[in-house]
Amino acid sequence: MRLSVIVPVHNARQTLADCLAGLGQSSRMPDQVIVVDDGSTDDSVEIARRWGATLVTGFEARPRGAAWARNRGAEQASGDVLVFIDADVVVHSDTLERMARAFTREPALSALFGSYDERPRCTDIPSRFKNLLHHYVHQHGKRAASSFWSGCGAVKRATFLAVGGFDERYERPSIEDIELGVRLSQAGCEIRLCPEIQATHLKHWTLLNLWHTDIFARAVPWTRLVLRQAHLPDDLNLGWRSRASAVCSWTALLSAAGAALSPPGSLASACAGAAALGSLTLSTALNADLHRFFLRRGGVRLLVGAWLLHHAYLLYGSLVFALLALGHAFRLTARAPVALSKPQTPSLE
């Protein structure tokens, strides 16, 4: 089995060297490392050359997106398995070995993906929250997956080509990997979440970047994909617990607003306040294991920050879904043909 590692790059000078160094320290060395430059204006290309990677560049000056870059890498790959690693991800020494072992152990397996580890490089609250939440979700997801993750994932080359690769209409990092997973699943391919396959994420998240990415690069395109497929998955961060938590967060917010707008000391104010407190308590209980995880990894400071950010995440994620779903339903209703009553034949009497 030959492994071709594909790394899409756009202005990744701060992380690319670490990414390639991690691949070079693998217990199971890659048979091919392909770096695809997506219109970088920094020295990413020179870094790739210094590390001896096969460099794919010179197509267009403007960035075309990670989906486009990964497809160009797949065209140059000679391996039986395409391993997709992001430029801000450092594999563990056994990551590639575990991937190869999984494909050998399960010949029918078409694709697999792993997880970020619980040691992200950046230690600020937004970065730790985002990276650790991803780790937690992937550690507790269903092993038989219907999705895919290209940060640290692999797919058999023949299968990848058969389904048409990544959808290049995603011109910025978004849900192109999830969409690929949907098509793989619909084609009857077996996809496996392997939580023991891990890598370190180097990305620094600011609060503004986190929210902008969550809403416009994740929630909006993901909701559109769900509406197009007419199927809401029940896995990863979409399980019943997350849905119930979102309802609790909105109940708490609206109840708190009701308490603030009611006359102080009134029965309405007291009832609304109790509803807000009860909803927050229920949401916290539903996510008790997640909160304990944050507490273990970063103490009370991280716990408090993550608790607030998680509630915000539940609020804006569910709001985007509700608004787009309502708009979709309205458009369907507007396009529905109007049933015309049968013309009445005039009476001759």
What's the total count of β strands? Answer: 9
What class, by secondary structure content? Answer: alpha/beta
What is the alpha-carbon Rg in Å? 24 Å
Ranges where pLDDT stays below 50 over 5 or more residues in a row are: 338-349
Main sheet specs:
9 strands, mixed
Average per-residue pLDDT, rounded, comes to 92
Total count of domains: 2
Strand content: 5-15%
Number of helices: 11
Helix coverage percent of residues? 40-55%
Shape descriptor: globular
Tell me the CATH topology of the largest domain: Spore Coat Polysaccharide Biosynthesis Protein SpsA, Chain A
Distance between the termini: 87 Å
Succession of helices and strands:
EHEHEHEEHEHEEHHEHHHH
- Full CATH superfamily name of the largest domain: Spore Coat Polysaccharide Biosynthesis Protein SpsA, Chain A
Any descriptors?
single chain, 349 residues, alpha/beta, Spore Coat Polysaccharide Biosynthesis Protein SpsA, Chain A, 2 domains, 9-stranded mixed beta sheet, 11 helices, 9 strands, disordered C terminus
